[in-house]
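User: Sequence recovery, please. Input:
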């Protein structure tokens, strides 16, 4: 008998869904296969290798019920826009929920355009009282795999391993780019001095150097070595320049 994954326990899974999931472990009689189809159209557990992170999802059960019953949702969502955290409201048609490495994602439609929202960033969620028609040809698993492929293609190609000071940790968790924010919040516990070691994702060598220099002594580059040496060189040039200016 198929055990229900921990991710689904967060939903407060109703007995009917729990029973339907167990059926996935065995061949189903034709009369019961519709139960499997209903589940797979709305819930998907992606077990591929993404960094694992546990985040708070206080509105998950409300979203799950709306997804299961084809009810429209009114959402208040937060997102990092540059260095500013902004909130916006949307009315969405919830097509499905996907759990990947401890993070729940809502696959939904807004005016017919499909979007993916992180459930942990949903600040408020309530049903509007309206029903919506699910597209009969929508494939949750197929859409999700295609979406993940697009995310991987746009992933930054210049990772930097660095030590981050306690003061900078607080700033990065609030205002930095979304990927840097996520990397810092997933970091291992601080060392005895309160610093964390984390891999920061940047687009290019120059992009990484520009950010690292702006952080001053609050960050230490450990790898890659060419970036570390370039940062040291820039720092020496700045010190030499101001030392000469003070002598004038």
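Assistant: Recovered sequence (248 residues):
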């Amino acid at each position: 008998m198929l055990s229900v994954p921990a991710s689904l326990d967060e939903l407060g899974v109703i007995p009917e869904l729990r029973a339907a999931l167990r059926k996935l472990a065995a061949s189903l009689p034709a009369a019961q296969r519709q139960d499997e189809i209903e589940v797979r159209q709305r819930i998907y557990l992606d077990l591929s290798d993404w960094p694992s992170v546990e985040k708070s999802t206080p509105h998950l059960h409300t979203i799950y019920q709306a997804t299961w019953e084809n009810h429209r949702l009114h959402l208040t969502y937060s997102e990092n826009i540059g260095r500013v955290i902004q909130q916006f409201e949307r009315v969405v048609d919830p097509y499905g929920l996907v759990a990947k490495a401890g993070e729940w994602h809502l696959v939904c439609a807004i005016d017919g355009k499909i979007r993916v929202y992180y459930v942990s960033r949903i600040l408020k969620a309530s049903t509007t009282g309206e029903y919506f028609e699910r597209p009969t040809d929508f494939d949750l698993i197929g859409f999700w795999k295609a979406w993940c492929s697009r995310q991987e293609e746009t992933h930054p190609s210049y990772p930097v391993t660095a030590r981050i000071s306690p003061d900078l940790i607080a700033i990065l968790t609030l205002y930095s780019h979304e990927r840097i924010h996520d990397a810092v919040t997933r970091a291992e516990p601080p060392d005895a001095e309160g610093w964390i070691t984390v891999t920061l994702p940047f687009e290019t060598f120059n992009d990484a150097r520009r950010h690292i220099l702006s952080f001053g002594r609050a960050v230490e580059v450990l790898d890659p070595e060419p970036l570390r040496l370039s940062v040291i060189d820039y720092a020496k040039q700045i010190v030499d320049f101001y030392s000469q200016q003070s002598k004038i």
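The first helix runs from residue 6 to 9.
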